[in-house]
Amino acid sequence: MPVRPGYIKKIATLLLERYPEAFTGDFDHNKEVVVRVTNVDSKDVRNRVAGYVTRRVRSQAAQA
């Protein structure tokens, strides 16, 4: 399993704090939200942020 860079975690955490209701457990939906609320130009960074957000949302849902 690859290690996620700190900037991916920081961006994802900040987005989850600012827009908690915008994200779901669906990766494709989260990709679109990341495009709308950020100015990330790189597709790779967008996908990494969306993937980390998706994992966090699914993890929080499983704990609840």
Can you tell me the CATH superfamily? Answer: Ribosomal protein S17
CATH architecture heading: Orthogonal Bundle
CA-to-CA gap between the ends? 26 Å
Number of domains: 1
Low-confidence stretches: none
Tell me what you see in this structure:
It is a single chain. 70% of the residues lie in helices and 0% in strands. It has helices at residues 6-18, 27-37, 43-63. The chain has one domain (6-63): Orthogonal Bundle (Diphtheria Toxin Repressor, domain 2), CATH 1.10.60. The protein is an all-alpha fold and 64 residues long. It contains 3 helices and no strands. The protein is globular. Helix 1 (6-18) packs across helix 3 and helix 2 crosses helix 3.
Topology:
Layout: H1 6-18, H2 27-37, H3 43-63
Summarize the structure.
By secondary structure, the chain is mainly alpha-helical. It has helices at residues 6-18, 27-37, 43-63.
Q: What descriptive keywords fit this protein?
A:
Diphtheria Toxin Repressor, domain 2, 3 helices, 64 residues
